[in-house]
Amino acid sequence: MPKKAKQVTIKDIARIAEVSASTVSLVLNNKKGIGKETRYRILRIAKELNYTPNLLARSLAKQHTDIIAVTILQTRNALFMEIAAGVEEVLKDRGYSMNMVSTFDDPDLETKELASARARGVDGFLVSSALLESPGIRLLVEDQVPLVSVLRRVPGLANLNYAMEDSFKGGYLAAEHLIKLGHKRIAILKGHSWTTTGSGRLDGAIDAMKEHRIPVNEKLIIPGNFSKEPAYLSTLAMFKGLSEKEMPTAIYACNDDMAMGAYEAILDSGLRVPEDIALVGFNNAAYTSLQTVSLTTIDVQAHEMGRLGAERLIDMINRKRGYGKPLQVVMEPKLIVRKSCGYQAGAVASS
Prior knowledge:
Rossmann fold; alpha/beta; single chain; 434 Repressor (Amino-terminal Domain); 3 domains; 12 strands; about 350 residues; about 40% helix; 6-stranded parallel beta sheet; disordered C terminus
């Protein structure tokens, strides 16, 4: 096995150039006060030795890496990419870069990724993948590491900084809209119950149904895992297991990706949207307005959530005055009415 080449250091250049390490540092950092001949000699030696600066060492010396760790569910989920766009907009403006990782709502993977990012010396964490039980996030908050949660929160952390959606109210609005249209057999494609978004979006819809005395049929509440393909398969399986009288007249999907899976399952079953089955999603992903039958959905202000979270995190890193009081913002959801429930011109209802 070939021996690994030793990395050239400032001290190596200084020894060959017969100057001090501090002189070499001044030249390499383009500082003034060094003679032209000495400067040329140092630069020539550095080039001959293929010297490259150790960026990690520089970061440790100034106690900053200018890197933010951002956790998301997965890159294929449009909501999380919209949040990330808001985060990136702020970070670029403030001179930071972001290291984005997917956790797939796996608690073990989340803990591992957070620990790995901390070991790399990132300046702070912006997490949009928080679970009801997130030991990795709890540890960072307890250790007073700069961290902001967006979209979701971790219950029981009183000092947690967050900008989150109102999942319960959004779910309520979605179901209420279907109820007002006269639907009594409403199916629900649910997400992950171990997240505030998964539990809140489901609980809000069920609360609306109970309040309006609409039967809650457990056979019509099916898993979609916040993803298109599982939602497609679950919807097909549900249709096959129901009699004609039991078939839902509407489906509420707890995110837009699941709504798209349900939409394809409806079409593949020889049915139509909205004539046979009305459909509501959640998140207001950019693609939802571009479908052949545009999707009625819930807007959660994802981009603004990302911006607010990033601004707060940078303030925490820079220890700006007043940062000690937690930012705890709950964004207002908005019902966006389109064609998938039966379209009426100009119908855009807000909460």
